[in-house]
Amino acid sequence: MSEMNRIWRLRKRPVGDITDDVLSFEEESIPEPSDGEFLFRLNYLSLDPTNLIWMRDIDQYMPPVELNAPMRGVVCGTVLKSHHPDYPEGAIVGGIGVWADYQIGTPQSVNSMGDTGPIPVVDAFSTFAVVGPTAYFGLLHIGEPKEGDTVVVSAAAGAVGSIVGQIAKIKGCRVVGLAGTNEKCGWIKDDLGFDVAINYRTEDVPKALAAACPHGIDVYFDNVGGKILDACLNLMNFKGRIPTCGLISQYTATEPVPGPFNYEMIVMQRLRVQGFIVLDFAERYPEAIAALSQWMAEGKITVRTEIVDHLENALQTLKKLFTGANTGKLIIRVKDV
What we know:
This protein is an alpha/beta fold. It has 2 domains: 5-114 and 304-333, Quinone Oxidoreductase, Chain A, domain 1; 131-279, Rossmann fold (3-Layer(aba) Sandwich). It contains 10 helices and 15 strands. It has helices spanning 50-55, 121-128, 131-143, 159-170, 182-191, 205-212, 226-233, 265-268, 285-297, 314-318, and strands spanning 5-10, 23-28, 38-47, 72-82, 92-98, 102-105, 110-112, 150-153, 174-179, 196-199, 217-221, 236-244, 272-275, 305-309, 329-333. Helix 4 (159-170) links the parallel strand 8 (150-153) and strand 9. Helix 3 (131-143) crosses helix 9.
């Protein structure tokens, strides 16, 4: 074990884009677990758009990270020292932790990942911890797609969107995805099976969507908000559903963001627009993991994980989420299991 613990701390609230002075990377002593706790070493750190939300002092679904506190993150690690009978040394755990090599866990913050079978731990963590259940419950519980429906997915080459589109195809839907590069569009169409891919940076999105959805949109899985939401609202079918997973186009805005110009379509078409976070479905995680595992084993779902080595690269890598530079799930690897 290293004699020191490397840790990222929040030093400044971000305004607009994340800057280098928002977090500091430091060395501290390794903490000792008390009764009912355990010490685990970080193996993998999930990087997610919600990291930026947690940095900001705004109303959100859990308390923001306090200034000077360790940066919060979704983590996977190996137990090194334990004072809890259910978490023996060597157990692999996953849940909410911090950006640090060594950290204290409790049953309230992390859970045992158990045996992941033929799926490597890093793939199980990257898919099952957050993004897979988010796609599963957001689409199937809120979007309620039916065979033959047209489903549109924004940020379709992202970690959540890429899985949403594949689940929609499994359910017999026509799937249209929006992504920001030709390479990403090729991936979701040629490799993942989307019916249509639209490059929102180079194409006229309202025209491209109208051409791709001649019979309208039944489900729009919204990861971005903004102009793409507006374009989709204008094409929604009667009693269409809009699961609202994220608004990444707005997270770095420094001025108030205009509301949707086609907001009236919610009334005219009796739409259901529902925001959610995956923690809303925490008790049903086993259902999602079982289904996703089966689909992955059958080759019906393909995931792409972009792994970046070394904890010190976490801040710079996180920025990629807000520039569209990543494809699939972003993971920091500290030490393989």
